[in-house]
């Protein structure tokens, strides 16, 4: 359910849309070269202090992906769900504690996070910290996500590095405000939530292309309604499969589910969008036009996806302060208490 704050944002967005009708040219994202980096960050932050960082991340992601292709979509979801509520600060990685409510426990927003992806980030940190102590879990998450996408077929893109790890998780209200639930999201809701974080319709359409890989649980599609343009037989088929086997995990891209490409958009135009929030892109003139353009031109999609992903990595809600966690799943003060015997060990 949307929070009261979310409903207020929605009303504000509706008023703005009525007063200032949008045209496609108004929704073209700015190149990331024009984005001002927050203080202390740079694209080559670790170049001198940890020159082998990228190689270590890449090697770990290659191994993990070879064992479980699902880790790619898993890393993407961890990245998005960490960054949107409170900036890219690795707060989502924190496990439940008597000291706070873990973001992982906020449902349904963070239900079904890929354990392999979470564990991979911590495993990379453990390897990296042998030689490079001052690399945050937040930076590792960004780099691992980018590597996973590149290994799946997409080109590279810039991410700002030098982020610190937050001392605690985002609050329930922050998560509820900024993590929409695909099953219930209408195009207006999507535009509003993305807009409040500084993203336009171009970003929304491009970032939705992340659904070119990965799977979704049946609870996301079991009561999916048919919208204009849907292939009715396809929608009924995936709902029937889920009714027979509620534990089934449905590919989001029904043609090339393990390759990062533009078939997601082609599927939408063919009426084979899996999530209701995906098909909503066809109900807005601007986003529908973008879907058509991305379906025709994979290079255009790749270019805009990279720019929009870099914008996600730039989300900042305040000063970049925190710590370099010695375990991605616990803030250092809890780890120190554990080491001193004041907290029960796992």
Using the coordinates above, name the CATH class of the domain at 205-308. Mainly Alpha
| Element-level helix/strand string | HHHHHHHHEHEHHHHH
Report the end-to-end length measured between terminal Cα atoms. Answer: 34 Å
Helix content bin: 40-55%
Shape: globular
Layout of helices and strands, plus pairs?
Layout: H1 4-19, H2 53-67, H3 70-86, H4 115-128, H5 137-151, H6 172-178, H7 187-196, H8 201-208, E1 215-217, H9 232-244, E2 249-251, H10 263-269, H11 276-279, H12 285-296, H13 298-313, H14 332-339
Antiparallel strand pairs: 1-2
Helix pairs in contact: 1-7, 2-4, 2-5, 3-4, 3-5, 3-6, 4-5, 8-12, 8-13, 10-12, 12-13
Compact overview of the structure:
The chain is 47% helix and 2% strand.
Your description of this structure?
This protein has a domain at 205-308: Orthogonal Bundle (Peroxidase, domain 2), CATH 1.10.420.10. The longest helix has 17 residues, at 70-86. It has helices at residues 4-19, 53-67, 70-86, 115-128, 137-151, 172-178, 187-196, 201-208, 232-244, 263-269, 276-279, 285-296, 298-313, 332-339, and strands at residues 215-217, 249-251. The protein has a two-stranded antiparallel sheet with strand order 1-2. It is globular, with a radius of gyration of 20 Å. By secondary structure, it is mainly alpha-helical. Helix 1 (4-19) crosses helix 7 (187-196) and helix 8 (201-208) crosses helix 12 (285-296). This is Peroxidase. Residues 40-332 form the Plant heme peroxidase family profile domain. One of its GO terms (cellular component) is extracellular region. Pfam families: peroxidase.
